[in-house]
């Protein structure tokens, strides 16, 4: 089942197949890097401490199990999962703390995390 976060703007609470509930920040963002590579970015709110990369990756992997459908259906070979801490005030005028995971589709069709977790 795809994540439905393209047709509107705002926050959408989404329950994943694992039972985890995440707050998706819509819309998904279509990106293009200077080298011409195109990516699809999904932003979401996390309650996990940004220093705890292992837990952040577990959460991102859980979201990826659903978001992967969107990325592949739209023909992208690069995906960005961007975890942000909750904010106070107006989203547009607030500085946010976050962490991003980059995944890239390999020539064998498998997806690989490119973000280093130490």
Q: What would you note in describing this structure?
A:
- The chain is an alpha+beta fold.
- The protein has one domain (10-113).
- 18% of the residues lie in helices and 37% in strands.
- It has one helix spanning 53-73; strands at residues 10-15, 21-32, 38-45, 78-84, 98-105, 111-113.
- It has a 6-stranded mixed sheet with strand order 1-2-3-4-5-6, with helices on one face.
- β2 and β3 form a beta hairpin.
- The N and C termini lie far apart (31 Å).
Secondary structure: elements and pairs:
Layout: E1 10-15, E2 21-32, E3 38-45, H1 53-73, E4 78-84, E5 98-105, E6 111-113
Parallel strand pairs: 3-4
Antiparallel strand pairs: 1-2, 2-3, 4-5, 5-6
Overall pLDDT metric: 86
Q: What fraction, in percent, of the residue positions are helical?
A: 10-25%
Strands of the widest sheet, in order across it, are 1-2-3-4-5-6
Largest sheet: 6 strands, mixed
What is the tally of helical segments?
1
Structurally, how many domains make up the residues? 1
Q: Class by helix and strand content?
A: alpha+beta
Q: What is Rg?
A: 14 Å
Name the assembly state. single chain
- Ends apart, CA distance between termini: 31 Å
Number of strands: 6
Gross morphology is globular
Unreliable stretches (pLDDT < 50, length at least 5) are none
Task: Give helix and strand order, one letter per element, not per position.
Answer: EEEHEEE
**Hey, roughly how much beta strand do the residues contain?**
35-45%
